[in-house]
């Protein structure tokens, strides 16, 4: 005897670009979407009964239709519109979860002026949004950024930590600090100036703390970065941060008669420290 305890289905990696014409000025919004539904679908798993199942192929079509009908929406309201459309279309759907990662195209500057329809890829991190729509409830929204990478070459240390017979790392009050951040924040209401501007303010507040204050540890920086994000944008209620500590190892040049005064490093990705926290209001 076995019991189906969870099930969901939908379409993942649906790539769609929305091109909004504002006169001659174009806006491009490229997303990779995952749209999943839960509800009365258990019998397709347990009894080979597909009679209630919405085809994932159909879900892909709905993504494109909602894209066409919402060319100018930011990622967050677009995800919410799509999740709510799936809920509205199919009575057997109890909840719809939509996640969209953005491939960000930033407007090209040509001859000192923003170009109306030419863009360059912004390769640092993928912003994402996530909407979960349920019946008789508010659509829950989260935003964030995946793989946002930044570094500072001083103003960071790791000292006064617990020591034991296995400890070999020396204390330092001057090191390179680099990470590729996974960050997410939960909305309690829509931000006054729109999600895109609020997301930029959140990242700006976090980077200001990272760059502008001494870091006693990645832990210390993350807590203060998340606190600054909560202060910068009152419409978010919780921030999740997960950061690898991408170690830059000092190269030993003493055998060549050279001192290495924090100047030559081996950049490494693995293994890396992994520091994570969630910071909420209150
Ligand atoms: O910022 C840091 N946090 C740690 O927990 C840690 N552990 C370690 O070896 N180096 C560091 N650096």
Automatic annotation (TrEMBL):
Catalytic activity: urate + O2 + H2O = 5-hydroxyisourate + H2O2
Keywords per UniProt: Oxidoreductase, Purine metabolism
Cited Gene3D superfamilies: Urate Oxidase
Pathway this chain belongs to: Purine metabolism; urate degradation; (S)-allantoin from urate: step 1/3
Cited Pfam families: Uricase
EC annotation from Swiss-Prot or TrEMBL: 1.7.3.3
SUPFAM superfamilies (alphabetical): Tetrahydrobiopterin biosynthesis enzymes-like (SSF55620)
Matching InterPro entries: Uricase
Presence of keyword Oxidoreductase: yes
Family recorded in the similarity comment: Belongs to the uricase family.
Role: Catalyzes the oxidation of uric acid to 5-hydroxyisourate, which is further processed to form (S)-allantoin.
Name of protein: Uricase
Native organism: Craurococcus roseus
């Amino acid at each position: 005897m076995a019991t189906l305890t969870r099930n969901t289905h939908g379409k993942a990696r649906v790539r769609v670009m929305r091109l909004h014409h504002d006169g001659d000025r174009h806006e491009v919004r490229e997303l990779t979407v995952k749209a999943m539904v839960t509800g009365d679908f258990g019998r397709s798993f347990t009894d080979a009964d597909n009679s209630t199942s919405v085809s994932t192929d159909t879900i892909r079509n709905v993504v494109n239709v909602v894209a066409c009908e919402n060319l100018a929406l930011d990622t967050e309201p677009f995800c919410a519109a799509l999740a709510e459309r799936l809920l509205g279309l199919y009575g057997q759907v109890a909840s719809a979860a939509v996640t969209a990662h953005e491939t960000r195209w930033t407007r090209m500057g040509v001859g000192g002026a923003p170009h109306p329809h030419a863009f360059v890829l912004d390769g640092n991190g993928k912003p994402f949004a996530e909407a979960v729509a349920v019946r008789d409830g508010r659509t829950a929204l989260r935003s964030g950024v995946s793989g946002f990478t930044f570094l500072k070459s001083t103003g960071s240390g790791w000292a006064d930590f617990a020591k034991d017979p296995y400890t070999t790392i020396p204390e330092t009050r001057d090191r390179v600090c680099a990470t590729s951040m996974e960050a997410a924040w939960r909305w309690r209401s829509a931000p006054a100036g729109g999600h895109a501007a609020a997301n930029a303010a959140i990242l700006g507040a976090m980077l200001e703390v990272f760059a502008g204050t001494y870091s006693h540890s990645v832990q210390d920086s993350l807590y203060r970065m998340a606190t600054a994000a909560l202060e910068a944008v009152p419409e978010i209620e919780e921030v999740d941060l997960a950061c690898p500590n991408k170690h830059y190892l000092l190269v030993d040049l003493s055998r060549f008669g050279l001192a290495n005064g924090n100047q030559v490093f081996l950049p490494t990705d693995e293994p890396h420290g992994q520091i994570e926290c969630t910071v909420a209001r209150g």
